[in-house]
């Protein structure tokens, strides 16, 4: 597997890339090659007197390369120019990445509504599964919030094809997973909806749980009622998983500006990591 790791050479991205436990988790799910990518924003002029931004970025990537190679990975580095989330998606497609990793310090009051950060833009537009690695906020030398990326997973499902695609990620995540909590939220519009006999949400969760238990993953299930995003976040607070696993419906014109989807809310507001699985890439 190939992973794209995005970095702006900040303390937050350094915490993600240089954490030995996080690197070990990536190795356990099958990652063998890491593409380190940094993007020089298009509004930074290459001809700024006395400053060679691309050379500085390359020196920073070389430092990270040594750490990641020492952990046993093959490493390729990329310094590119343009809009960060667009260039990261371009490179992910070019190198046939299996997932992307980006560090995020989390939310601010403004970010709860208006999308501004690279992590939030990637969450709306990513072409491959995206791991948002949550980093401590408001400290000079931050660390990751959850070192073991996939040890304890909270999987949120509405039984859609998008959720089914996210569940399929367990086929490789399971190699680093010890425990899983499967959650379905019945919203008010679901109450009274019909369904086939014997296939209610509890039974459908139990069926998925049996699959994980056959893989040696200790699994529990929970059916909640209420607003999906709020209930999933409440479940995260109660369970404190390493990562919330959720499927995405993909891009829309509205979500290019505002985070309105359940998956967008989870990326924006979750305390720990989020693993977001998008629709398949167009061929």
Automatic annotation (TrEMBL):
Pfam families: Usp. InterPro entries: Rossmann-like_a/b/a_fold, Universal_stress_UspA, UspA. Gene3D superfamilies: 3.40.50.12370, HUPs. It comes from the Archaea. Residues 3-132, 150-278 form the UspA domain. SUPFAM superfamilies: Adenine nucleotide alpha hydrolases-like. Belongs to the universal stress protein A family. This is Universal stress protein. The lineage of its organism: Archaea, Methanobacteriati, Methanobacteriota, Stenosarchaea group, Halobacteria.
């Amino acid at each position: 597997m190939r992973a794209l790791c995005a970095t702006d050479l900040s303390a937050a991205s350094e915490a993600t890339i240089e954490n030995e436990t996080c690197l070990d988790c990536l190795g356990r799910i099958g990652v063998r090659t890491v593409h380190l990518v940094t993007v020089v924003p298009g509004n930074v002029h290459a001809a700024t007197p006395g400053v060679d931004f691309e050379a500085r970025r390359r020196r920073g990537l070389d430092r990270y390369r040594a750490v990641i190679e020492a952990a046993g990975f093959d490493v390729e580095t990329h310094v590119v120019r343009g809009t960060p989330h667009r260039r990261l998606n371009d490179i992910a497609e070019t190198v046939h990445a299996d997932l992307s990793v980006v560090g995020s310090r989390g939310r601010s009051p403004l970010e709860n509504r208006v999308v501004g950060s690279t992590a939030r833009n990637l969450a709306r537009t990513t072409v491959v599964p995206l791991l948002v690695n949550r980093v401590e906020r408001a400290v000079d030398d931050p660390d990751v919030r959850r070192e073991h990326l996939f040890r304890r997973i909270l999987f949120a499902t509405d039984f859609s094809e998008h959720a089914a695609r996210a569940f399929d990620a367990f086929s490789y995540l399971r190699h680093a997973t010890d425990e899983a909590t499967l959650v379905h939220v019945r919203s008010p519009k679901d109450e009274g909806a019909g369904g086939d006999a014997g296939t209610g949400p509890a039974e459908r969760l139990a069926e998925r749980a049996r699959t994980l238990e056959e893989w040696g993953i200790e699994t529990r299930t929970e059916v909640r009622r209420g607003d999906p995003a709020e209930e999933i976040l409440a479940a995260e607070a109660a369970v404190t998983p390493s990562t919330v696993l959720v499927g995405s419906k993909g891009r829309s014109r509205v979500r290019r500006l505002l985070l309105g989807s359940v998956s967008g809310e989870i990326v924006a507001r979750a305390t720990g990591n989020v693993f977001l699985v998008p629709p398949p890439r167009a061929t």
